Amino acid sequence: MSQTNTVKTKRASQEQGPSEVSSTCPYCGVGCGVDVSVDYVKSDTGNGSTVRLSGLSGTRDHPANFGRLCVKGTQLLATNSLAGRMQTPTIDGKKASWLAAINKVAQSFSDIIATHGADSVAFYVSGQLLTEDYYVANKLMKGYIGSANIDTNSRLCMSSAVTAYKRAFGADAVPCCYEDLEETDLVVLVGSNAAWTHPVLYQRIERAKKRNPALQVVIIDPRRTASSELADLHLPIKPGTDVALFNGLLAYLSANQGLDHRYIEQHTEGFTATLEMCQNWSVDQVAAFCDVDNSVITQFFDLFKLRDRVVTAYSMGVNQSSSGVDKANAIINCHLATGKLGREGCGPFSLTGQPNAMGGREVGGLANMLACHMDLDNAVHTQLVQNYWQSPNIATKPGLKAVDLFDKILDGTVKAVWIMATNPVVSMPNRDKIIAALQTCELVVVSDVTAQNDTIDYAHVTLPATTWSEKNGTVTNSERRISRQRGILPAFAESKHDWQIVCDVAKAMGFKQGFNYQTVHEIFNEYTGLSAEQNQGSRDLDLSGISQLSAEQYDKLRPVQWPINAANPQGTKRLFSDAKFYTQTAKAQFIALSVQLPEQQCSAAFPFVLNSGRIRDQWHTMTRTGKSSELNAHQPLPTLAIHPEDAAALNLKQHDFVQLFAAHNDQPKPKDDSSETKVVLAIKIDSRQRQGEVFAPIHWSAANSSSAAIASLYSDAHDPLSGQPELKHAAVALSPIRFASQGQIFTKQPLARDFLRRCFDYYVQTPLSQGYMLTFASQQQIPALKSLIQQHFPLYDEWMSQLLDGQQNSYALQQGQLMLAMFTGSDYRQIDQVWLNALFSQTQLGPLDFNALLTGQPLTAFNAGPLICSCFKVGENTIKQAIEAGCESVEALGAKLKCGTNCGSCKSELSQLLNQYTPAPQTQMSVAAARISVVQLDEQ
Questions:
Q1: Angle 242-255/324-338 helices, nearest 10 degrees?
Q2: How far apart are CA 706 and CA 232, in angstroms?
Q3: Is the distance from CB of 716 to CB of 600 less than 8 angstroms?
Q4: Helix, strand, or coil here: 777?
Q5: How far is 375 from 356, CA to CA, in rounded Å?
Q6: 165-195 pLDDT, tens digit each
Q7: Above 50 in pLDDT, residue 825?
Q8: DSSP letter string, 578-635
Q9: What is the pLDDT of residue 46?
Q10: Is 239 left (phi over 0), alpha (psi -120 to 50) or beta?
């Protein structure tokens, strides 16, 4: 990894020279360890030094990843650039001092509280915060302001899993560890495309299956995803039918001697009522309801019954539902009924989406939780926390969950909101309503690392925060493992750590005593001390074993799984090995479940189910990963995946455009149309989709596209218990759009959003390593578009164009260097971005280059096809040629082309390409069959 980040700083002389710092990746909930190579280069003047991040690799002894990283992790330094960072506070769009900004926030919050009460203000925070940041924000809101109106974007991620664990176990206690995925007999992945969303975990399963071919993998997902390449069995269930499937499994286990009666009798309650709710779900009824063949349902049920050790791992496909809690409890019920819990290779395992969603849960970052897994409606807990904090107030009732919070902002109940490290205009459902709410709000404060995103457009005050490599603290991953995220670089420009910003505001509000921390280590010790307060094993979250660390011990803290206490000083791999739970009776609770359909059902007018999720190389709203040309190369454009028969019925071909309309259309609208809530996508015909269902990625926004932010298509539907929105099921209609012209423009500099809106009806702008790629469509004719582009770049001194078969190719030079290339026509065009990158990097072009630009045909050296392997820049055409030349396995492709040998994120796609392009020996088989027929005839 050669990407560097360089910042000047003052360092002591003993710090000069190279070193290596261990930290934690800031992406998904796997929590991979990373080792960052750091060079301290003494400045020429002798005054301080330059800090240079010169390399990055996976930490070989980190228990989460053992040295492996996905493609996003390997590109961390590339996405850690200073480009686009927020540098100074602003008030009403104008630069302000920290003193002015802090006083503005503190005084406004104080005034609003004095007039309207504590519940008139709110915080909306993020799983991107470190645990220490989360802790002080929660302390300020719940213990000092006295409201529980602090919620988090983790509400969108795993709050249904939290509620289900609490219903069943009495605590938000994930029972499993990552080793269980390797030591099991059966892995069931439900609503999880782990190959793309949790690649390092997926690869651990993949390697375990190679070591133990008897290990079976079942995928339960409406789509056939990249993860399905590892599956022994795939259940493409109808969206929203998970509870029926697992109720059916419980009924099948009961009818076929698959229950662990001793475990049920000794360690659980509520089984009889739960089983009664399941009895009508026969295999035939489940198959019909889930729209899956009977034989496939029976295979799955038998596998679960016969395998001694089973891990069911689930993610957003379960959680993001109006019945997400019930779905998770349906899974947990089956594990309790079979005793497949609390031992090696067993358990219901929620795979967390964010790097510190688990840490946020620990410190009470959700509006319905108190700190350290204590409860707001428990008087003993609230008194304990208030005494420990010595705070003037304490929240005693749940606050507003995310969807409800923005409703209350819209109706004026909540008059000030502080948004930290998240982008709700893009990530929350019902984008129109979120924008209208922020436009209505008296005070919107945003603290973030980026200077521009869709939410910042509506902020009255912005506060620059530190990012990964600057932040210092802890995070907790999906297996309860606490790891250090270490600060390496000094804070950029005027940015501050989130905990510092919160403490500054708290003190400016008059809370002098509770926020006088000098270091993050002090916050950690206070938080871990609270987890130990009056605990004695009564609560699952017990960090007493690390509650009094010195600064040096904290700095050297190794990854460790809670609980960590006198009984488990080295941490705890898995929970409930003693079958003792955190309920009043110490027994786990079965939950009797009825089947609830998704709230928004399809109709003749809105016949398609819209599903959504991540793609392989991007993260959330792309404010970090979108900086990297490498991460943009794999899938540079948002698309709508649709089944071939559905496309044919709409007379659509590959890359045609459609506008999507949602069934909910009576929502509040923004005050102007600048939000661009229209959704237009190019289609991708994909036989792995179920008919009647479409899939779109979540990542694009108004910051980089005209109409690819899909949140406006989802209604406010959410789980009544967890509050988690239903982001996997919207009823939509598709309307084909024909444009007069479309194409791609490559430029050295980005095109401004105002200009793009004027010129194009559809656009997506993507950064390259040497410039920018604009993919566009317009109702304007090609000559008019070219004229607008030329007017926008008056300093380009040489323009050349050629019209060829209805397509026009143009380029522009400035002092002999290529500055712009434009390829337009009436149909879809995809130009090799690697080729244009190479041309942009040259100071002078030759005759062959100019000819290639005018014909739109790159030289043969740039004919690798769509990128598959981001690490080694291997394209589909190159892989196809290798397969046709005799490569018959992923390993063979790796040996020949290196693809799949670094991060491994592309291995599922390599497998798909092998299935697609491996020549079948049809001729030999048919000849052999013919010979057999001849012999049979002769014998007769």
A1: 20
A2: 41
A3: no
A4: strand
A5: 20
A6: 999 999 999 999 999 999 999 999 999 999 9
A7: yes
A8: T---SSTTSSEE---------SS---SSS-EEEEEE--TT--TTSTTGGG-HHHHHSS
A9: 64
A10: beta
Residue 648: its pLDDT value, please? 98
Tokens 């606490």 belong to 482
Which letter does DSSP use for residue 563 in this model? P
Distance, in Å, from the CA atom of 453 to the CA atom of 702, rounded to the nearest integer, reads: 8
Compute the mean pLDDT over every residue in the chain, rounded to the nearest whole number: 93
Residue 621 C-alpha from the chain's centroid: 9
Helix (H) or strand (E) holding 314: strand 310-314
Tokens of 441: 């709000």
CA dihedral 275, 278, 283, 285 (to 10 degrees): 160
Strand partners of residue 734? 660
Please report where in the chains the tokens 């656009």 appear, as a residue. 763
Q: How many CB atoms lie within 10 A of CB 108?
A: 18
Q: Is 470 helix (H, G, I), strand (E, B) or coil?
A: coil
Q: Is 57 exposed, middle or buried (0-12, 13-18, 19+ CB in 10 A)?
A: middle
Cβ(564)–Cβ(548) below 8 Å:
no
Percent share of the chain, pLDDT over 70:
94
pLDDT reported for residue 45: 65
Amino acid at 502: V
| pLDDT higher than 90, residue 794 | no
In 714-814, the DSSP E strands lie at 730-737, 741-747, 762-767, 772-778, 798-804, 807-814
Cα separation, 596 vs 590, whole angstroms: 18
Per-residue pLDDT reduced to its tens digit, 101-153 = 999 999 999 999 999 999 999 999 999 999 999 999 999 999 999 999 999 99
End-to-end CA distance of the chain: give it in Å, rounded. 70
Per-residue burial over 762-774, b if 16 or more Cβ lie within 10 Å, else e, is bbbbbbbbbbbbb
Phi then psi for residue 749, to 5 deg, are -120, 150
Please tell me the distance from the alpha carbon of residue 645 to that of residue 648, in angstroms, as a whole number.
5
The predicted structure's pLDDT at residue 816 = 87
The span from the CA of 410 to the CA of 716, in Å, is 13
Range 864-887 average pLDDT: 91
- What is the pLDDT at residue 14? 42
Q: What average pLDDT does this structure show over 722-735?
A: 97
pTM, two decimal places: 0.94
Contact 445, 105 (CB under 8 A): yes
Inter-residue contact 917 to 888 (CB < 8 Å): no
User: How many angstroms separate the CA atoms of 853 and 246, rounded?
Assistant: 57
Residue 92 banded pLDDT, cuts 50, 70, 90: very high
Reduced to 3 states, what is the DSSP secondary structure of residue 820?
strand
On the question of pLDDT at 668 being above 80, the answer is no
Residue 666 has pLDDT above 70, yes or no: no
**Residues forming beta bridges with residue 125, ordered by sequence position:** 152
Helix 907-917 crosses helix 876-884 at what angle (to 10 degrees)? 50
Is residue 868 within 8 A of residue 874, CB to CB? The reply is yes
Name the one residue in this structure whose structure tokens are 């030094």: 49
β-strand pairing of 588-589 with 268-269: parallel
Q: Which of 471, 485, 472, 478 is nearest to 561 (CA)?
A: 478
Per-residue pLDDT tens over the stretch 281-292: 999 999 999 999
Instruction: Collapse the DSSP code of 516 into the 3-class scheme (helix H, G, I; strand E, B; otherwise coil) and give the result.
Output: coil
Each residue of 402-440: pLDDT tens digit? 999 999 999 999 999 999 999 999 999 999 999 999 999
Radius of gyration of the chain (CA): 28
**CB-CB neighbours of 856 under 10 Å:** 20
Amino acid making up residue 833? Q
| pLDDT attached to residue 50 | 83
Would you state the pLDDT for residue 870?
Answer: 87
Amino acid identity at 690: R
Give CB contacts under 8 A, 24+ apart, made by 387-393.
388/529, 388/530, 388/533, 389/139, 389/143, 389/514, 390/513, 390/514, 391/139, 391/143, 391/144, 391/514, 392/143, 392/144, 392/146, 392/511, 393/118, 393/143, 393/144, 393/145, 393/146
